[in-house]
Amino acid sequence: MKSAIKETNFSFPQQTGFYKGKVRDVYFFGDKIAMIATDRISAFDVVLPLPIPYKGQVLNQIAAKFLDLTKDIVPNWVISTPDPNVTIGKKCEAYPVEMVVRGYLAGHAWREYNLGKRILCGVPLPDGLKENDKLPYPIITPTTKAHEGHDQDISKAEIIAHGLVAKDEYEHLEKYTLALFERGSAFAKDKGLILVDTKYEFGKYKGEITLIDEIHTPDSSRYFYLEGYEDRQQKGDVQRQLSKEFVRQWLIGNGFQGKEGQEIPRMTNQIIDSITERYIELYEHITGEKFIKSDNADMMDRIKNAILSNI
Predict the structure, then answer these.
(1) What pLDDT, in 10s, does the model give residues 224-265?
(2) 3-state class (DSSP) for residue 299
(3) Helix, strand, coil percentages, rounded to 5, for the chain
C-alpha cells in the first residue's frame, strides 16, 4: 500500500496542547494552531481503519484555495499553508454547531424525507420531491458538533433556546452561510459542477466571527456533475457525483451504517486506490488545476519542519 498519514505524534518545544479530530491532528501554540490534514477517512461519524493516500493533501489544498477566495465575505482562521498537508492559523473559540446548507434533496436530507419527514431542523419541505431534486431555495439544517459519536440535527429555535448561540450571532452565521454557499455554487457551476450541499464551521477570534476548519472539500460538500443533471433527474437515474457519498454507499452496500454492533467492512487496496482517484478527480474539477502529488517518502519530517518554521 502507498504511504499515507494515519496519525502524527509530534512534540514541539513551544506546544501548548494537542487535539485529535476525526481526520485532523491539531497542535496548539498559544493563540496559533497548526492543523495537519491526515489521510484518515470517516463515514457515519466513524473513522475507518485504513487511510486514503493523498486525501489529506486534497482537502488541505482545496480548503486553502476557497478560504482565500471567500475572505471578502467573512474573515477566516488561516495565516499560512506552508506544506501540502499543513495549515497554520488563528486559534478560535468554535461555536458548538455546524451550519449545514442544502440546495438539493440528497444524502441525509433525502434519507429523512424518504422516511416521511417533512420538517428538517425546523425547516418545512414540500411534498412530491424526488431524491436529488433542487430545493425551492437553499435551506440551513444545522447540527450539533459531536467530538465522538453522531452529530445531531437541531433547529434554529432550539439552538437559541438552549443558549448554544445568541440570536443575533446566529443570524450573522446564517447570513455568512448563505453568502458562502452562493459563492461556492458559482465557482462550482463555472467548473461544470453543482454544489449540492455543504457545511461551514465558525468560531470567534478576538470577538470577531471567523470561518474555521475547511470549506468546499469532498469531506464537507457534495457535488454533482452539471452536464446531464436534468436529463438524469427526469429519467430517475443516479446522479454522477463527486463527494464522500460514494464511500457511504459502498459501506451501506456492505452492511455498515455506523450502528452499534455493525462491523466495518474490509477495504481492499483496489477500493482504497479508487477512493484516492475520486478525491484527486474532485480536486482537479473544482479547482481547474492539475493535482501534483506531494513527496511522501519523508512526509513526517517534511510536515514537522514546515510547522517548526512557521509557528
Answers:
(1) 999 999 999 999 999 988 777 778 889 999 999 988 899 999
(2) helix
(3) 30, 25, 40
Distances (CA, A) of 197 to 82, 85, 237, 254: 29, 24, 19, 25
Which one-letter DSSP state was computed for residue 8? -
**What stretches of the chain adopt beta strand conformation (E)?**
17-20, 24-29, 32-37, 42-43, 46-47, 78-83, 86-90, 93-94, 97-104, 119-120, 123-124, 134-140, 143-144, 193-205, 208-212, 221-225, 241-243
Q: Give the residue from 111, 55, 117, 43 showing the smallest Cα distance to 85.
A: 55
CATH numbers and ranges of domains, the chain: 17-93+271-308 (3.30.200.20), 94-243 (3.30.470.20)
The dihedral through the CA atoms of 238, 272, 49, 201 has a sign that is negative
Cβ atoms of 65 and 50 closer than 8 Å: no
**pTM of this prediction?**
0.90
3-state secondary structure at position 78: strand
Residues facing residue 195 across a β-bridge:
223
